[in-house]
Amino acid sequence: MRSPVRPDGYHERLTTPWWSYPVVVGVAVLVALECSFLAVTLWGQALVVAAFVAVGFGLVWAYGNQRVEVGDGHVRAGQWRLPIGTVRGVAVLDADRMRAEMRRRDDGVYRCVRSWIPTAVMLQVDDPDDLPYWLISTRHPYLLAAALANASERDGAPLTARD
Fold it and tell me: How far apart are CA 52 and CA 50, in angstroms?
């Protein structure tokens, strides 16, 4: 596995675990066999099964295709970008603290969270028009926090670490 830290910042894909694909195949085959009674021929049934498997693979791949990046003066988590200058603090969350944060029903937070990744970082955002903090899943929370601190120092706005 490649290191997420690169000279130009931090890059990580929040990919789905390998075992999710066989599960999708099994579920898709079962559902397709239930729906394939409409197909008259064996080829028609095979086509229905193949279509369900392809759609299932596509959905799992799309859900696991989120990226977390630090570079070019921005933090990118999923589809959202945040300027590094608006990040005021970063906290590394272990699995227990991550579960506690997920139980909170706070609407004022951006969450780029994947259930199969137990650790995360929480970014305190200093922007009155934006969300007060971001919660981002990552397999390497300390490396992401360090990359954010380095990028913040380059921009002249050092971060505060929070526990």
Answer: 6
Q: Give the length of the chain.
A: 163
Task: Give tens-digit pLDDT for 91-133.
Answer: 999 999 988 888 887 777 888 999 899 999 999 888 766 688 8
Work out the number of other CB atoms within 10 angstroms of the CB of residue 18. Answer: 7
Pairwise pLDDT comparison (71 vs 159), residue with the higher score: 71
Quick check: 121 and 137 in contact, CB under 8 A?
A: no
Name the pTM for this structure: 0.79
Measured CA angle at 35 (ends 34, 39), to 5 deg: 120
- Residue-wise pLDDT tens digits, 33-85: 787 677 667 787 788 888 889 999 999 998 888 899 998 889 999 889 988 88
**How far is the C-alpha of 145 from the C-alpha of 159, rounded, in Å?**
10
Residue where the block lists tokens 């066989």: 22
Q: Are 121 and 141 in contact (CB under 8 A)?
A: yes
> Rounded distance, CA 105 to CA 161, Å?
24
